[in-house]
Amino acid sequence: MSYGGWEVVGKNKKDKSNGKPAKLSKAEKKKFMENAPKLEDFLPLDEVKTLYNTLDNNKENKKPVKEKESKTKENEEKKKQQKQKQQQQQQAEKKKTEPKEKPPKSIEGALNAISIEELKNILATNQARFPEAPLVWLKDILAYLCVKIPIDTNDPVFGNKPADYPLSVVPNTIRSILESATKDAGSKAVQIFYEITLTAMTNNMVKGTPVVGHKIFLQFLAYQHPETVISNIPKLVTLRNSYQNRKPIGLSLLWALAQGGQKNLTIGLKIWHEVMASMLEMKNYASYVVQILERFTTLHGTTTSLSSDLYLNIADDVYSGRYNIPATVEKELSVSVAKLRTIIFKNKDTRHQPLFQALMKKLTYTTPENYKTEIINALVASLSTDTQCYSAWRSNYTKYLHQSSLLLKHLNANWTRVSPSLRVNLLRETILTFIATNEELGKAKKKEEHLNACVKECKVLLEKMTVSKSWFPWKRGSVLLLVVIGAMLAYDTQKHGSFKASNTNRFLTESGVSGYGEHAWSRVRLYSSKSLEFIEASAPEYYKAVTEFSTPYVKLAGDLCLITKNTSLKVYNNIVLYAHQKGPLIAASINHYAPGLLESMQKQSIQAMEAIKTYSALASDQANILVGHLNSENLRKYTSQAINTTQTFASQTYNWVYEKVQTLTKVH
Fold first, then answer.
1. CA dist 177 to 141, 198, 372, Å?
2. Which terminus in the chain has less CB density within 10 A, N or C?
3. Pick the residue with more confidence: 562 or 593?
4. Domain boundaries, the chain
5. pLDDT band at residue 481 under the 50/70/90 scheme
């Protein structure tokens, strides 16, 4: 309602809130159509008719266009199907005409058939397309190897092959490509790829696909980068638990993990302790796990660097009773642990005092007997190698009375065997310290357990060391005594001119020793003559029996000697002939590749000999500190005179004895 002013015309609140025009109802549409202007109102009738006619014609023309389009689409689909059929027929004909490649029968044949250029192209294209994705390069190389080596092996661990098989039969050209790929990829990518390949190997074995390519790559990575094997031990344990009920897959996993230990003993023992030791309880894997440990200790027998913690871990796995190990493999395991003990004590410069104390702690009441034996042997080896272990033993004696009693008992029982390797002086001081400590402990009110055993063993061991220390070398002493007596007799004889005029002869005559000697000699001669008569009478019979028995064997020995002689001569002649034939060729080849090498070596050797002669002469001149009556020339003279005097005395003694024998013979 307006009051002669402006009215505000606006939308309702609903219209404002929606912001959209309201839809018309059917009744409103009819009203709108009726009220809307028509063409007849604006245009003449002729124009209106022409407009309606054109609209009708357009509707009729649209129908055939649609029909034409549908027909063209059907024709195109038919043509495509015909082309596909023709292509399939052509491919089938090509397959028939092309000869099929024969699959390789062995791993060696498959490796030799690999195209080196093709493998290089795969690596180069991947490096060009994915320069920052090294895993893609390695995966493509692995896929290529798996395709080219479709060999399925019955033995998952290659038991009858060398330790480095199948990598040992991989051509050097393929190895160089693998080396360059892993080097360019980096250590992190190699570590991830190792885990991927290990998982892929197990998955393919589940599917029944050959996995020789995976094993070759895994062995290569373990040899080149042993640290990758132990980079993720929890994942390895998970894989082991997942497939340990499938023997071929489980053995393949153990084989792959063991490859790192063939190049690095520390890594091998870590893997064995963390992953493999628990499988000793399983009959399907126990023997192979033992073989792996034995292989590690054999391959690295000359190693001198080994952590004592690893040795203790392996000893715990084998002896502590943690695992229920079959009795059939216990002996082999003991041999391997003994080899590890030998390796760890090879290095004389290493301090074994911490190991000594750790071994003492492990030697308890509940320790199994075989573990006690191993610990005691290791304790003895520690005492033999490191002198600081004696001080460690003395300082912890009261703390380890039980352990000390066992160690002392072992030393007493095996003294003759272990004494040469021990420092007897240090051990004697240690035992004396123990005896003093035992006396103090005995006076205390609280009696220590195992004290009596220690007192007894210390007393016995000290007696053995005292006896061994006071032992006199009778053989050397006897020889020395005879030499001294001979020298005195020679001097006495030379001084008085003959043995009859010597003081020795006079003493023997006055004391009656010569008379008793003549009597004893007569008895010896009498019984010796009777023995000779008996031998002359019975010798032919015994000689005949011995001859009949030994003749065939003597003949056989002679034939063997003759055969050995002829064979040796033949081998020697062949070697000489080969040297004569090949020697000039070798010398010529050396001169060809290294001209003047032989001549320079000959000249240098001559110069070295001359230098040795010169410096030895200078050294002898500098070391010639004996001057005056004891110079070298006088010593030579004295030596020659002593030899001549000894010879003269010996001849005189022989003549005197011969005369006495003749005199006694004539008397009797």
1. 10, 21, 52
2. N
3. 562
4. 353-471
5. confident
Cβ atoms of residues 107 and 178 within 8 Å? no
Four-CA torsion 241, 245, 246, 251, nearest 10 degrees: 60
Residue with tokens 């039980």: 402
Confidence class for position 85, pLDDT limits 50, 70, 90: low
Percent of the chain with pLDDT over 70: 66
Q: What tokens were used for 176?
A: 């160089």
From the number of C-beta atoms within 10 Å of its C-beta (0-12, 13-18, 19+), residue 139 rates as middle
- Read off the pLDDT of residues 572-601 as tens digits, 9 standing for 90 and up: 677 767 766 666 667 666 665 566 666 666
C-alpha dihedral, 93 to 98 to 102 to 107, nearest 10°: -110
> How close are the terminal C-alpha atoms of the chain, in Å?
189
Q: Are 69 and 116 in contact (CB under 8 A)?
A: no
Of 439, 436, 447, 365, nearest to 406 by C-alpha is 365
Residue type, 443: K
Contact 326, 286 (CB under 8 A): yes
Tokens, residue 611: 């230098």
Torsion of CA 201, 205, 210, 211, to 10 degrees: 20
Indicate the residue type of 579: A
Two tokens, residue 536: 């002359």
Q: State mean pLDDT over 619-639.
A: 52
Residues 6+ away with beta carbon under 8 Å from 232: 191, 195
Place of tokens 């002996």: 331
Using CA atoms, how far apart are residues 2 and 398, in angstroms rounded to an integer?
121
Cβ 203 vs Cβ 246: under 8 Å: no
Question: Distance between CA atoms of 325 and 516, rounded to whole angstroms?
Answer: 76
Give mean pLDDT, residues 377-402. 93
pLDDT band at 66 (very low <50, low <70, confident <90, very high): very low
Q: What is the rounded distance in angstroms from the CA atom of residue 45 to the CA atom of residue 39?
A: 9
- In this prediction, residues 420-435 reach a mean pLDDT of 92
Whole-angstrom Cα Rg for the chain: 52
CA distances to 366, 490, 503, 646, 658 from 496, in Å: 80, 10, 8, 15, 21
On the question of pLDDT at 98 being above 50, the answer is no
Burial of residue 329, with CB atoms counted within 10 A of its CB: 0-12 exposed, 13-18 middle, 19 or more buried:
middle
Structure-token pair, residue 637: 């003279």
Whole-angstrom CA distances from 275 to 138, 254, 465, 533 are 27, 9, 47, 82
Query: Which of 522, 517, 524, 533 has its CA nearest to residue 662?
Result: 522
pLDDT digits (tens, 9 = 90+) for 186-197: 999 999 999 999
CA 606 to CA 594: how far, in whole Å? 20
H or E element that contains 234 = helix 233-243
CB 377 within 8 A of CB 417: no
The predicted pLDDT at position 349 comes to 72
pLDDT (mean) for 505-515: 71
Gap between the Cα atoms of 370 and 318, Å rounded: 10
Give the angle subtended at the CA of 631 by the CAs of 626 and 634, to the nearest 5°.
155
